[in-house]
Each structure stands twice: as C-alpha cells, then as structure tokens.
Amino acid sequence: MKILMLTPYLPYPLVSGGQIRTYNLLKNLAAKHKITLASFIRNEEEKKYIKELEPYCQKVIVFKRRQAFSPINILLSALTPFPFLVCIYFDIGVRREIQRELQRENYDLIHAETFYVMPNIPATKIPIYLVEQVIEYLVYQRFVESLPRWAFLAKPFLLLDVAKIKFWERYYWKRAKRLAAMSGEDRHFIQKLEPDRQVDVIANGVDIEYFAKTKKQKPQKPTVLFVGQFKWLPNRDATKFLVEDIWPKIKEKIPSARLWIVGRNPPKDILNFASRNIQVDGEVEDIRFAYGASEVLLAPIRNGRGTKYKILEAMATKTPIVGTRLAIEGINIKNNHEALVASSAQDLANQTVRVLKNPKLGEQLAESAFVLVKSQYDWKKISNELDRVYKEVGTN
C-alpha cells in the first residue's frame, strides 16, 4: 500500500515520545508498505537526520516550520478562528507542496499524526487516518486551569485559544475517515463527543529487546528516578509536585534517599532543584543506565494524557513503578500487581518508601510488569495492529 505520512516533527533523533513512536512504526511497517514521510523541521540542521529515516521510507520530504512565537503566528491566532497551535503549522506553501505530491503519486492512504497538521492537507478523495497522540485541548485546558492567580489577566485569552483548539480538533476528527487513540480511555472520550466516529486503539509500545538488556546495579544510596521530557508541561508540574510535596515526606522516612531527575530541556526552575540529594540531568547518554541505577520510578503526573514511554521503559527494564492513576492510564496495569498507584503526596511518598524498604516487593512488581509489557506492548505487535487498520481504511 502506498501511504503519505504527515508528522509535525522529524521522527529522529529519538527525543520526544512522538518521535519514538513514529520512528518505531516506520521501522516495523517499512517491509509491508511504501511510505512517503512528510515532516516539519524547526531548523536546517535537522536535515542531517534524514539519512536515518531513508531505509524505512520511499521518500522523505521536509518543511521548515516558522518559529512558534513569530509575528505571523501571533497575528494569525489573533485575527483568524484558528488556535495558536494550528497557526504554528499551517502554511499555504506546504499545502500546495502536499497537493503537488498527491497529484504526482497514486496514494492509497494519508496518515496524519496529530490534528493540527491537517489544515495542510488539501481537499482529496484519498482516505485520511488521523492519529491523536493526546487529546490536545484537554492538555491545554488543564494547563490554563492550573495557572497561578497572578496570571488572571492572561486566562481569558488562553481559554479562548483552548476553545478554538477544541472546535478545530473535533472538526478534523470529523474530516478523517477513521481515528486512532492511544488508549481505551481516549477512545471513549472521543466517541462521547463524536459518537459516529470509528476510533481504533493503537497504543504506544517499547523496544523490548533493547531495554531488556539493561544492567541492574544497586546504587550506594536508595535512588528514586523521575524521567520526563520538559517541553511537555505536565512533566514540569509533576517535577515540582515531587520535589516540593512528595520528596520531603520520603526523606523523613529514608534520610539517605537520593532523587534523580532526568529529562531533556529542563527549564531554570527545574535545574534549580539540584542539591546535595537531588541530581538533575538534562539528558543521559543511555537512558538504560538511569533505569539500571535506580530502585524505583516515581511518576506523579497530575494532568495531561501523555505518551507513557517512561512507564513502558521502566516495565521493560524491570524497574518498579509508583505513580498516579493518570501516569499509567491506558496501560493495562493493575494496582499492587504491576505497579503501586496512589494520588496524594503522602500516599505517593508512602508507596515509594514501601518499595525502597522492601526489595522483594519491588522485584515482584517489576517481574509482573515485564511479563505484561512483553506480551502487549512490543512495537512489533503494535505495528501489526496498525497494518491491519491500514488495510481496512486504505483504497487498495
């Protein structure tokens, strides 16, 4: 089948959850389909990564995206019905180039990764399969609702933008022939708003073979790990919640405990958390080392439906998990079996202390989680499910 895949990022290097997802799907689908990848890049330097994707694509096309806070984007979001997120990616030139590509080649399917790239797809009879990695308007809505009181002057404008996101997200749900969500919860949410939409669950996966090679070594001090990409706002909130509310309670019970925060693009306020017993690393050369040198992954996510890669990676590396219900949402984890689930700062601290003081409990949780991730979340299985859907949705 001949497929045009449109993504808001170049799926290499493997930094963000979206990049990891798209790269692994391309890698596993390349033998079954002829895929043209059309991706947005932020700067010319990214072109050096095209060669990493060429083995899995018939062709790679890139479009240079405007800077997010460019005057054009700000003006468009103020004077048009489009939200700021759509304005960042919408480009008449890109739309024309995609139109020419659709005229040149006989595509069976257009795979759109995220709704906000869809304004660049011209009117066409080719079926569109829209993949929603998150429900975007919910992420932004929760962010605006969590703003401090002093930001009250900005809230009305931000809430207007959230309303725009919701309108256009639903609009493009209806334009697509079929949708994909990351979890059953997201599918239910979409169908509650748009009951006539057919929504598949194409979950996120993990490279089991790669992460299972992680070498476990007991750290000198009891070590709690937090992993998160800090461009995603809920990770910033979770880190502050961890350091300010949860960590002092853990230290009361285990004074020698150490917290290791790992994640790209940490802002200054996150970097400032570094202290004698808190280590903050913007990135590590091999994330498996961080999992191998930690006794528990703590994921105190309070808002936003993310990609859950840190949870899947922890499962594949046999690292015990403590987290909120939202952190594990969409993964078939049972509380007290594959992970310990809690909500309040006190409960999250207590459950983390349980794992640190009881290595056998940690081993039991980790082994059960590994069995689950291996049986249900391997990229090969996820790709086979997407391949099945492609055959149902495509024209040939």
Automatic annotation (TrEMBL):
Gene Ontology MF term list: glycosyltransferase activity
Entry keywords, A to Z: Membrane, Transmembrane, Transmembrane helix
Name of the molecule in the record: Glycosyltransferase subfamily 4-like N-terminal domain-containing protein
Gene3D superfamilies according to UniProt: Glycogen Phosphorylase B
SUPFAM superfamilies linked to this entry: UDP-Glycosyltransferase/glycogen phosphorylase
Superkingdom as given in the UniProt entry: Bacteria
Domain Glycosyltransferase subfamily 4-like N-terminal: 16-209
Source organism of the structure: Candidatus Curtissbacteria bacterium RIFCSPLOWO2_01_FULL_42_50
Transmembrane stretches, start-end: 72-94
InterPro entries xrefs: Glyco_trans_4-like_N, Glycosyltransferase_grp1
